[in-house]
């Protein structure tokens, strides 16, 4: 897409505490959009990497120094005064206590209880993405059995699972409807989100939170389905581009590593996974042959988290 003015490269920090509160700051007087709330950050300077710029900006604005930050999404946004490319990082560890070195106000917020206003428009998709947990589970009743699947689900929900996809290719009709209904009811009792693979009508009928499209569905669509949460499976740059164009809420990309379910499929590997999502504007889950201990590495590569079909249901 062409832009009438040069892109201004900007870094932004999503500073997240262990209790999932994140930090917003108000823009000081004398700057465009003074009084608006935003994620802290600023313009990159010549010769700086994005992470170097972010560390400098957080020291200048908040008096803190980054200890652990993960690259996240990049988004282009056009304001009246400039077109900016925002490099978002999730900052999960830092030294010092944040304070407004430029006399800006600070506020720790949560996605479910946002109490400051007005917000800079570019931040709304980021807040939406923050509602997605880092672990995305995929049901596996075809291997575990239906009752065992429900038992494993109860255990995982009690241990904090908040997001799952119902994907049961060997079930159909009333049997699938029964199992999906059971899963949705149990998950919603724990305030967990549930999406159903490929079946938009079933998702609406059972009150699921959305749908997860196959890559074939994704490539055939001209507009995003009208559901609360819409994800899609991607395997290459073309599918990622289509997901961004349609405004998907998230995608999974894989297989990253060889998988039991698709032994003949060539794995991307972590290097290609990282390269494919480097400029992506959506949250991307790594998928394929992963276990929960792979999460930290996936975050380092720019992933939003990991999606799992088997390890998430394994007794720990």
Provide the descriptors you would attach to this structure in a database record.
29% helix; 8-oxo-dGDP phosphatase activity; single chain; magnesium; TIM Barrel; 8-stranded parallel beta barrel; 15 strands; EC 3.6.1.55; Nucleoside Triphosphate Pyrophosphohydrolase; NUDIX_hydrolase-like_dom_sf; 316 residues
Polypeptide structure, described:
By secondary structure, the chain is of the alpha/beta class. The chain has helices at residues 50-62, 124-130, 141-144, 146-158, 173-189, 200-206, 215-220, 237-246, 269-276, 295-300; strands at 7-15, 22-26, 37-38, 41-43, 65-78, 83-95, 106-109, 135-138, 163-166, 193-197, 210-213, 229-234, 250-253, 284-287, 305-308. It has an eight-stranded parallel barrel. Strands 4-1-6-5 form a four-stranded mixed β-sheet, covered by helices on one side. It has a three-stranded antiparallel β-sheet with strand order 3-2-7, with no helix packed on it. α4 (146-158) packs parallel to α5. The termini are far apart. The mean pLDDT is 95.
Structural class: alpha/beta
Total domain count:
2
CATH fold call of the largest domain: TIM Barrel
Number of DSSP E strands: 15
CATH class of the largest domain: Alpha Beta
Number of helices in the DSSP assignment: 10
Q: Sheet with the most strands?
A: 8 strands, parallel, barrel
Rg over CA atoms, rounded to whole Å, is: 20 Å
Share of helix, binned: 25-40%
CATH 2nd-level architecture of the largest domain: Alpha-Beta Barrel
The CATH homology group name of the largest domain: Aldolase class I
Distance between the termini: 47 Å
Q: What pattern of helices and strands is seen along the backbone?
A: EEEEHEEEHEHHEHEHEHEHEHEHE
Average per-residue pLDDT, rounded, comes to 95
What is the 3D shape? Answer: globular
Order of strands, main sheet, comes to 8-9-10-11-12-13-14-15
């Amino acid at each position: 897409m062409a832009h009438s003015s040069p892109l201004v490269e900007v870094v932004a920090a999503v500073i997240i505490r262990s209790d999932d509160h994140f930090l917003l700051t108000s823009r000081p007087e004398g700057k465009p959009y003074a009084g608006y709330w935003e994620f802290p950050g600023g313009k990159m300077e010549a010769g700086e990497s994005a992470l170097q710029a972010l560390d400098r900006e957080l020291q200048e604005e908040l008096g803190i120094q980054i200890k652990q930050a993960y690259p996240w999404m990049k988004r282009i946004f056009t304001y009246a005064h400039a077109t900016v490319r925002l490099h978002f990082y999730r900052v999960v560890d830092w030294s010092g206590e944040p304070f407004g070195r430029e006399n800006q106000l600070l506020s720790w917020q949560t996605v479910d209880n946002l109490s400051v206003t007005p917000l800079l428009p570019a931040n709304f998709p980021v807040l939406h993405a923050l509602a997605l947990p880092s672990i995305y589970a995929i049901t596996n009743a075809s291997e575990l059995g239906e009752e065992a699947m429900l038992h494993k689900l109860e255990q995982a929900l009690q241990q904090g699972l908040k997001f799952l996809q119902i994907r049961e290719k060997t079930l159909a009709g009333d049997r699938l409807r029964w199992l999906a209904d059971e899963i949705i009811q149990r998950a919603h009792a724990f305030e967990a989100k549930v999406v159903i693979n490929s079946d938009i009508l079933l998702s609406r009928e059972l009150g699921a939170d959305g749908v997860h499209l196959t890559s074939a569905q994704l490539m055939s669509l001209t507009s995003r389905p009208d559901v609360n949460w819409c994800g899609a499976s991607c395997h290459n740059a073309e599918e990622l581009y289509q997901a961004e164009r349609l405004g998907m809420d998230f995608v999974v990309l894989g297989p990253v590593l060889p998988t039991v379910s698709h032994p003949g499929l060539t794995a991307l590997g972590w290097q290609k996974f990282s390269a494919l999502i480097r400029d992506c504007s959506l949250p991307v889950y790594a998928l394929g042959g992963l276990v929960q201990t792979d999460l930290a590495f996936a975050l380092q590569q720019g992933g939003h988290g990991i999606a799992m079909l088997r390890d998430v249901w394994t007794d720990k």
